[in-house]
């Protein structure tokens, strides 16, 4: 079975990590994999290193906007990608077109009009309130060729229409490479020495793109109160800005650190390729996002046995059970975030308990093996339906958004 993966960007973040995980672990004796994406970023090169043929297409420059001139430019960008993808589909002749993002799903559906190829829209997003999102949902529901897959129940619900849902939403939660993120005391010691962290230092980490919706600023302000009570505490900010407004936000973070006199206690580590090893160094990992469809980095930290604090946004409550395997705080609740940090900073036994339960949660529910197995079922079902579209009662039914 030939599967063509199409991604609207070549920059690797959470959605692309899942795509690479699939390329790495889907059995090649059953699946012939190819990937199509823009040349920007490292996705093409990483796919090629896995032995997956990779083909470039124009990048899509498109974001939600009310500016008609900006929208017109976005449409031109989409038009270029449409033509190239249509030619790629014709030459590569896939059995299934796996569009790895909502934007990829839009382009894939329009680019293959008149063709019988089944399309999987794999959404890693929670669609915002915007007139265009209604049109996106309508497009997703408009074709019998489309199957919708979401990384969480929250992401699935954001794809549903209030008036009609002829295409159900299958939920396949992201999976973690448990071997890569397993707790490693030896790596912890070595990495803490490299980072010049004392044995008694409380290391708090936040990992992800430096951007306003990830909430690094709120965490820095909460950390200032934690540091007043626990002078040995250190905050590690891992990640880098990607877009212009993100760079402005990064400057704002540094200015805040300076104004709070925390230059020696807040460390900006930038983009790192050694996240599994670096994760071992932390005592507490925080996710302070406004919106988070799944929070892969949270699941990775949990697999590493770390105590986690996260906002109750999007798909996060599907992973965290408050008070059992971590702590949830309301989005934007600075006081609750500070209190949770102080509570865990002062209670090593609670951190250890959360870490054990967190690892158990990942090992039983969110492994890469479970993830790959569910995709194999979906691919086989999709192919079976293509061959026998009139018979679907014997096909395993998807897990629907409640």
- Going by CATH, the architecture of the largest domain would be 3-Layer(aba) Sandwich
The domain tally reads 2
H-E string = EHEHEHEHEHEHEHHEHEHEHEHEEHHH
Taking the alpha carbons of the first and last residues, their distance comes to 31 Å
The radius of gyration computed from the alpha-carbon positions, rounded to a whole number of angstroms, is 22 Å
CATH class of the largest domain: Alpha Beta
Assess the beta-strand content as a share of residues: 5-15%
How many helical stretches?
15
- State the low-pLDDT regions, or none: 390-402
| Beta-strand segment tally | 13
Q: Biggest β-sheet: count, sense, barrel?
A: 7 strands, parallel
Structural class of the helices, strands and pairings?
alpha/beta
- Main-sheet strand order equals 3-2-1-4-5-6-7
Anisotropy-based shape: globular
Overall mean pLDDT stands at: 90
Reported by name, the CATH topology of the largest domain is: Rossmann fold
Q: What percentage of residues falls in helices of 4 or more residues?
A: 40-55%
């Amino acid at each position: 079975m030939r599967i063509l993966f199409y991604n609207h960007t070549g920059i690797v973040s959470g959605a692309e990590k899942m795509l690479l995980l699939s390329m790495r672990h889907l059995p090649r004796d059953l699946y012939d994999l190819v990937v199509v994406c823009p040349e920007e970023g490292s996705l093409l090169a990483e796919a090629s290193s896995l032995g997956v043929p990779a083909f470039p297409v124009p990048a899509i420059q498109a974001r939600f906007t009310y500016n008609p001139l900006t929208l017109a430019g976005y449409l031109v960008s989409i038009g270029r990608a449409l033509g190239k993808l249509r030619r790629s589909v014709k030459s590569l002749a896939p059995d299934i077109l796996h569009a790895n993002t909502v934007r990829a799903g839009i382009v894939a559906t329009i680019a293959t009009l008149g063709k019988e190829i089944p399309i999987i829209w794999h959404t890693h997003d929670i669609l915002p309130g915007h007139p265009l999102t209604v049109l996106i949902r309508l497009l997703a529901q408009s074709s019998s060729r489309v199957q919708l897959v979401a990384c969480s129940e929250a992401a699935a619900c954001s794809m549903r229409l209030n008036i009609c849902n002829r295409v159900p939403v299958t939920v396949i939660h992201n999976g973690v490479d448990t071997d890569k993120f397993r707790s490693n005391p030896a790596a912890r010691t070595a990495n803490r020495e490299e980072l010049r962290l004392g044995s008694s230092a409380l290391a708090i980490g936040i990992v992800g793109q430096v951007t306003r919706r990830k909430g690094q600023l709120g965490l820095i302000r909460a950390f200032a109160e934690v540091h007043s009570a626990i002078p040995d505490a250190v905050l590690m900010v891992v990640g880098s800005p990607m877009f212009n407004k993100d760079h402005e936000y990064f400057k704002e973070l540094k200015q805040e650190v300076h104004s709070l006199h925390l230059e020696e206690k807040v460390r900006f580590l930038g983009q790192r390729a050694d996240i599994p090893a670096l994760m071992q160094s932390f005592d507490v990992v925080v996710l302070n996002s406004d919106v988070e469809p799944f929070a892969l980095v949270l699941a990775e930290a949990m697999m590493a046995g770390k105590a986690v604090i996260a906002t109750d946004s999007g798909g996060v409550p599907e992973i965290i059970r408050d008070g059992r395997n971590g702590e949830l705080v309301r989005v934007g609740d600075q006081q609750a975030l500070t209190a949770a940090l102080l509570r865990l900073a002062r209670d090593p036994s609670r951190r250890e308990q959360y870490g054990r339960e967190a690892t158990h949660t990942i090992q039983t529910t969110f492994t890469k093996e479970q993830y790959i197995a569910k995709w194999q079922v979906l691919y086989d079902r999709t192919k079976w339906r293509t061959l026998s579209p009139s018979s679907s009662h014997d096909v395993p039914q998807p897990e629907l958004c409640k």
